[in-house]
Design goal:
The structure is a single chain. With 208 residues, the protein is an alpha/beta fold. The chain has six helices and eight strands. It has helices at 15-20, 72-78, 108-123, 146-156, 169-172, 184-198, and strands spanning 30-31, 52-54, 61-65, 82-84, 89-91, 98-105, 129-137, 161-165. The strands form two sheets. The chain has a six-stranded mixed beta sheet with strand order 1-8-7-6-3-4, with helices on both faces. A two-stranded parallel sheet has the order 2-5. Strand 3, helix 2 (72-78) and strand 4 (82-84) form a beta-alpha-beta unit. The protein is globular.
């Protein structure tokens, strides 16, 4: 398996952090309820499923945007060595599954799309991928309405973990993401995902 590149988005430790020693791999995600596919779980209707495409090997982390405008391309630019799947499931040849992270916006249609994708993975109709978790990117500034916040909790229960990225006005204006216009929350997500990718994600169970 190709070794992941060094992550240039890792921040320099402060003197206090250095004296305290290394911390855990910065997993700032919220735990989901489902860590592996579950045979017999319900899948979405076939015409609502994300398409699939073949990849030559499971040596790349893929961001799978579950709907248009999800932010998968932005995340792929932020984390070297990762790629955007263009709203499709990347399927490698057996036996090693490829690691993927689902990406969705927090509006109602985005959460419903994330729920469908998570259900398809959980049901086993999508084989050959190891879903590491779901990144939810805010679709508007401010707090989520209660009904969407509750729905996001339900959707998050169908994946191993959930990361949250806040509203970023600079990105909305079309500015390229840089360390200067990217908040700490995004750094933390990238560091957490990178740590999972580097920890041999092929060990994450996924049927073939």
């Amino acid at each position: 398996m190709t070794q992941p590149q060094q992550n240039p988005w890792n921040r320099q430790q402060s003197p206090v952090e250095a004296q305290q020693g290394p911390s855990q791999p910065g997993d700032t995600s919220l735990p989901g309820s489902l860590s592996a596919p579950r045979y017999g779980a319900s899948a979405s209707a076939e015409d609502q499923r994300l398409p699939k495409f073949a990849i030559p090997a499971a040596d790349t982390l893929w961001w799978v945007g579950v709907h248009g405008g999800s932010g998968e391309s932005t995340l792929s630019r932020l984390l070297p060595g990762s790629r955007a799947a263009d709203h499709r499931w990347p399927i490698p040849p057996p036996p090693v599954p490829t690691p993927v992270v689902l990406v969705a916006r927090t509006h109602g249609s985005g959460l419903r799309a994330a729920q469908r994708a998570a259900s398809d993975w959980a049901s086993g109709v999508v084989q050959g991928v190891a879903v590491l978790g779901l990144v939810l990117i805010a679709d508007a500034p401010g707090r989520l309405p209660r009904v969407l916040d509750d729905f996001a909790d339900i959707v998050g229960g169908g994946v191993p973990r959930v990361w949250d990225i806040p509203w970023i006005e600079e990105w909305r204006r079309g500015e390229d993401p840089t360390p200067d216009n990217t908040p700490d929350e995004v750094f933390e997500v990238l560091e957490s995902v990178y740590a999972l990718r580097a920890a041999n994600p092929a060990d994450y169970p996924s049927p073939y």
